[in-house]
Amino acid sequence: MSAQQFPAQPGPPALTLEPSENTTLKERIVQALRDAVLTGRLKPGERLNESKLARDLGMSRIPVREALQRLEEQGLVVNIQRRGMFVGSLSEEEVQKINSLRVILEPEALTLARTRITPEQEKKLAELVYRWETQVATLSPSGAAALDLQIHRAIWTLSGNEFLVRVLTSIMVPLFAHRVIRKLNVEHQRWGNNTHVPLLKFIRGEGDLTAQQVVLEHLRFGWPEPERFSSLGLR
Fold first, then answer.
1. Whole-model pTM above 0.85?
2. CB of 117 within 8 A of CB of 158?
3. SS3 breakdown of the chain: % helix, strand, coil, rounded to 5?
4. Contacts of 94 (CB under 8 A, 6+ apart)
5. Which CATH number fits domain 92-232: 2.30.30, 1.10.8, 1.20.120, 2.60.40?
6. How far apart are CA 181 and CA 22, in angstroms?
7. 3-class SS at 80?
8. For the segment 99-157, what is each residue's pLDDT rounded down to a tens digit?
9. CA 109/CA 155 separation, integer angstroms
10. CA angle at residue 219 from 214 to 222, to 5 degrees?
């Protein structure tokens, strides 16, 4: 892979907590650490020093420890006995299992979003999709993964089902982190930049595809080896 394929990228951002009146401190720490994995600030296999993370975030170790435990439940962090916490990664079998769940759950989110979306929400979602179409070729793999996840999170949230959002987040965030690790987003540019347009069209009520067909097609064009999804019913 030549260095000319991406413009110069800034270094990974520092750990920061996003201000919020609607989330707890632990949830904000979880989000900060999750974003650090997705952006490459915390790298796969890296040992997570609880004290250092607490210093970087400007707080005590207890909420950081609780946040790491949450990330362990989500599969982003692994706890190795007598060695500590490490940034995790997925095997190919685990990727396949996650996608098997995804083709069941994400169509439900799409269907609910289609019935609930407001004109203002549709405009914001369309802006995110447009950013993907026009900017993905200029993004690093971690930047592309972050934007990709932002689009999907927006769709899940539009479902109005907080339990569905929670489950999708727990299984999908490790998958997007895996993409950064494997740099699969580089391949996205070969498969085209409009991989999210069918999702938007379905939510708008356009086209004849079912929600599951849309998700399967999105998966096929979002990964460099479409044969992986033959077992999911994609032809």
1. no
2. yes
3. 65, 5, 30
4. none
5. 1.20.120
6. 31
7. strand
8. 899 999 999 999 999 999 999 999 999 999 999 888 888 877 667 777 888 999 999 99
9. 7
10. 120
